[in-house]
Design goal:
Elements lengths: L1 H15 L3 E2 L24 H4 L9 E9 L1 E2 L2 E2 L13 E9 L5 H14 L8 E6 L3 H8 L7 E4 L1 H4 E3 L4 E12 L19 E14 L5 E14 H9 L8 H14 L7 H18 L8 H19 L7 H12 L4 H5 L1 H36 L1 E2 L1 H9 L5 H10 L3 E2 L1 H19 L12 H6 L4 E2 L6 E11 L2 E3 L1 E2 L4 E6 L1 E2 L13 E3 L2 E10 L2 E8 L4 E2 L3 E6 L1 H25 L5 E6 L4 E6 L6 H17 L4 E6 H6 L4 E2 L8 E6 L4 E3 L14 E10 L2 E8 H22 L6 H36 L2 E3 L2 E7 L7 H12 L3 E8 L2 E8 L1 H4 L5 H8 L5 E5 L3 E6 L5 H13 L4
Parallel strand pairs: 1-2, 6-7, 12-13, 14-19, 28-30, 34-35
Antiparallel strand pairs: 2-5, 3-4, 5-11, 6-9, 8-9, 9-10, 10-11, 15-16, 15-18, 15-24, 17-23, 18-22, 20-21, 20-24, 21-22, 25-26, 26-32, 27-29, 29-30, 31-32, 33-34, 35-36, 36-38, 37-38
Helix pairs in contact: 7-8, 7-10, 8-9, 8-10, 8-12, 9-12, 10-12, 13-15, 17-18, 21-22
Length: 867
């Protein structure tokens, strides 16, 4: 398969040029809340480019899975309408982190273009930034100046954000010929269809500050990205990316399932593209839901299903296409093959749910149209509900409105949609830090980073290098004052990675929290006891050792839980959050259904078996590059990895983790699951305890059983048998009571029938009855059946409240005697209100004494009704 050949040849080429070949990062960037999905090859190297972390390698190459469905890069609405837009695509890239720059990057790109992509060099054009004479001169060594064009900042200048790393870029384009337009150069090709961009080289050489001033970076870097699907389409001479091998194969499956022949239609494109996005996202731990990334998946799936219906596909079909995708891409992306069964299950469940929703939505649509005809307009609220809740796209709503000779309140609809988008955007914003990001900037310029020594030491002598009180740096903190201390070194673990910070003492300063608000800063939050503490003073810093040990046990137990979940449920389990403190642990993970009691018990047994083995927990460091190559080492999300990484190795479970851990599993003692629940669609949570807290939980359960046994006058082993006997006895009593109640109701019905009267010529039963409010409707209907034609009006009292019900036979309804009209007339007499249908209506009231008056008024109304 050509895609596979080019993918592998590209990576092998850069490997031969000294690049470290790294796997694609997951499409869900768990450690970067500013991104909805990974949308470029450089995302996984963002911290290196920003100087926040280092790796053993200085040049790398990847083929990155990308999904562009939100924010600045959103191609969802374009898929199916253009020849080249996709929500899922592969980005081939090579990267230099201060190692090589423009000359080498341009040389590599030209070499690959000729010998890996095997393009006709006479058809290759290049664009450069208008002021980048260096890049222009370097390209002139490879192709004529006439095929090098200059563009402005919008086209050929790249920036990570408003501030930070930035630089000019150079794009490689391929001339597809006159069939795609008559433009003589990329400058004239406004649509971009003839001169198709296939590779972008970013020369990261400046840093821009808030004022817009740019300073040269000390180590200029390279970030490139070539769209694999575009490269393959050019190689194959295909008009669209959908005619390339992988996507055309998926379209062939759609043809087979639908019985329709492909002729370039949008439904085939949408289904093939969206299936890839859905499958890779699910394989990487994302689940369809109503929020965040899950909402995007649900939107993709619903769009694919709607387009499937255009092809006559009325039943779930996406899972039937999946094997073709796994066959085409599973060898190079093994996570896809490993998650195949789970993807099938989730796709099918989601499709079935959406098809049910469409059926329910059809009923809502009919009601909406009925209401809209009164105002000749579908309200914006109704239109948004049809789209947001039931998945009807706006274009479909507009078409329905046109057919019904209605309009749609688009202004209101758009306001509601913008509010929904704003809500979603806020969900992805990075949480505000306790301190302004620039608060510690000057401090770290003159102070070396605070050293964390807490892995080896739990108490040490240190020097106070910073004191903050009331949001500003001070020289001393006095008795009773709250603030934070910064030491030159500390045994206190700062809260991160789900583990809470340490508590303890620094001289007479009581530490009740420890955070890392800024790189290089460890802040000890607390309150000063007696005396005064000055800056530069030497102090004794000691953590609460017993609390640390309990935290360590719970953190190691969390790793055991993660291992057990994957062992029992499958390798698809991905961490979605955690909390570890001294009393409990909490672990959030991606999974599409609740765990059974048997699965939870099996998990507890596995974990406790490992705890009893009392294995040694080994803790050591590796280079990040080596760890990346180790498939047996899991990486928790939320961690920022530097050049060296810390491995928590329990033989059967190996994870990268910066937290504190016990050294032997036996110290955990006992592990007990407290609760398993859903916290969002596709996200489950397990809460658990260990050690003395687990023992206490078991003791509480034992105490409860003892109380049950005492109440049931049996031993603990006999509780189940006693309860079963009581349940059976209760069923017998319930049946007996039901028989007694049936007899009572029969007697009451006879009494009511005997009290039948005439209101004019209308048969009427109007009386107060000793019934519960929920019994009235069934009882009244039975009476109507017995009298065949007439009105039944029943009242009942319940403490200080009352209920009134009116039932009318169908022949009288046809004579315009309606229950809801009667109930509205008489409800005020019991200080209440109500409503209902033409044949049955009900009202609740606050004045039981008004029931006789209400029943009399019903008599009076019926006597004067047209006969």
């Amino acid at each position: 398969m050509l895609s596979q050949e080019i993918r592998r040849a590209f990576l092998n080429y850069f490997k031969s040029q000294g690049h470290t070949v790294l796997p694609s990062s997951p499409v869900a960037p768990h450690d970067d809340p500013t991104l909805l999905f990974v949308n470029a090859g450089m995302n996984q190297f963002k911290d290196i480019f920003l100087g926040r972390s280092k790796r053993d390698y200085t040049r790398a190459a990847t083929t990155q899975k990308c999904i562009r469905v939100g924010g600045k890069h959103n191609d969802l609405d374009n898929v199916g309408h253009t020849s080249r837009h996709l929500t899922f695509f592969e980005m081939l890239g090579n990267f230099s982190f201060g190692n090589y720059f423009k000359k080498e990057a341009i040389g590599y790109a030209w070499d690959v273009t000729q010998h890996i992509f095997d393009f006709e060099v006479e058809k290759v054009w290049v664009s450069v930034y208008k002021e980048d004479d260096e890049a222009f001169a370097l390209w002139e060594k490879h192709l004529p100046a006439a095929r090098i064009v200059r563009f402005g900042e919008r086209e050929n200048f790249w920036a990570m954000g408003d501030t930070g790393p930035c630089g000019p870029c150079s794009e490689l384009l391929y001339d597809r010929g006159d069939a795609y337009g008559l433009a003589k150069s990329p400058k004239e090709d406004l649509s971009g269809e003839r001169y198709l961009e296939f590779w972008n080289l970013v020369f990261m050489q400046f840093s821009r500050d808030a004022s817009g001033r740019m300073e040269p970076l000390p180590k200029p870097s390279i970030d490139t990205g070539a769209g694999l699907e575009r490269v393959v389409s050019l190689k194959m001479g295909a008009d669209t990316v959908f005619e390339t091998d992988v996507l055309r194969g998926l379209i062939a499956e759609v043809e087979a399932i639908s019985g329709r022949k492909y002729g370039g239609e949008a439904p085939f494109h949408v289904i093939a593209d969206h299936l890839r996005s859905l499958s890779f996202a699910i394989a990487d731990g994302v689940q369809p839901s109503n929020t965040d990334r899950g909402y995007v998946l649900r939107k993709l799936l619903r769009r694919a299903v709607r387009y499937g219906r255009m092809l006559g596909l009325q039943k779930p079909f996406l899972a039937g296409i999946l094997p073709r995708l796994v066959s085409a891409m599973g060898d190079d992306f093994p996570e896809l093959r490993a998650a195949k069964e789970r993807i099938v299950e989730i796709l099918t469940l989601e499709e079935e749910a959406f098809l049910r929703t469409l059926m329910r939505g059809g009923h809502l649509l009919a009601q909406t149209i009925e209401q809209a005809h009164k105002a000749n307009k579908i309200s914006g609220d109704d239109a948004f509900k049809l789209k947001d809740t039931y998945g009807f796209p706006l274009e479909e709503i507009l078409l329905i409105a046109k057919d019904e000779h209605l309009t749609v309140d688009l202004a209101r609809y758009e306001r509601l949609e913008e509010e929904a988008k704003e809500k979603s955007r806020k969900a992805h914003q990075v949480q505000e830090q306790e301190f302004d990001p620039n608060f510690f900037t000057d401090f770290v310029r003159v102070h070396p980073p605070c050293l964390f020594k807490g892995y080896e030491e739990t108490a040490l002598e240190a020097r106070v290098v910073g004191i903050v009180v009331d949001g500003r740096f001070v020289d001393a903190i006095g008795e009773g004052e709250e603030g934070l201390l910064i030491l030159d070194k500390t045994p206190f673990y700062a809260e991160m990675g789900g583990q809470v910070g340490d508590t303890g003492t620094i001289a007479h300063f009581q530490v009740y929290g420890c955070t890392a608000p800024f790189p290089g800063v460890i802040a000890h939050l607390g309150k000063m006891g007696e005396g005064v503490l000055h800056k530069n003073e030497r102090v004794h810093a000691a953590i609460d050792l017993q609390r640390r040990r309990e935290i360590q046990n719970n953190h190691t137990a969390t790793h055991l839980l993660h291992w057990a979940l994957q062992n029992i449920l499958g390798s698809h389990i991905k961490q979605a959050g955690s909390l570890v403190d001294e009393k409990r642990l909490r672990f959030d993970f991606s999974h599409h259904k609740a765990l059974s009691p048997e699965e939870l018990r099996e998990m507890e047994n596995l974990i406790n078996e490992k705890i009893r083995s009392d294995r040694t927990v080994q803790i050591y460091e590796l280079s990040y590059e080596e760890a990346q190559k180790r498939s047996d080492i899991k990486q928790f999300f939320g961690e920022k990895y530097g050049e060296k990484v810390r491995v928590i190795d329990i033989d059967f479970s190996k994870e990268l983790c910066g937290g504190t851990h016990t050294h032997r599993l036996g110290t955990i003692g006992l592990f007990k699951i407290v609760k398993e629940s859903s916290i969002a669609a596709g996200i489950r949570r397990i809460e658990a305890v260990s050690g003395p807290y687990a023992e206490r939980l078991v003791q509480q359960a034992e105490d409860l059983l003892q109380r049950f046994a005492l109440a049931l006058k049996t031993g603990i082993s006999g509780i189940s048998e006693k309860l079963e006997a009581l349940i059976e006895e209760n069923k017998r009593f319930a049946q007996e009571l039901k028989g007694v109640r049936k007899g009572e109701l029969k007697q009451l019905a006879e009494t009511c029938l005997a009290a039948q009267e005439k209101a004019g010529s209308i048969p009427l039963i109007a009386m107060e009855v000793p019934l519960a409010p929920e019994e009235l409707a069934e009882f009244a209907n039975d009476l109507i059946q017995k009298i065949h034609s007439g009105v039944v009006a029943l009242g009942t009292k319940s403490g200080e409240k009352c209920q009134l019900l009116i039932a009318i036979s169908s022949d009288l309804v046809q004579k315009n005697i309606h229950a809801q009209t009667l109930i509205k007339e008489v409800a005020p007499l019991i200080q209440g209100g109500g409503g209902g249908k033409q044949n049955l209506a009900q009202a609740g009231g606050k004045d039981p004494h008004g029931l006789p008056k209400a029943l009399d008024k019903i008599r009076h109304i019926l006597q004067h009704a047209p006969q």
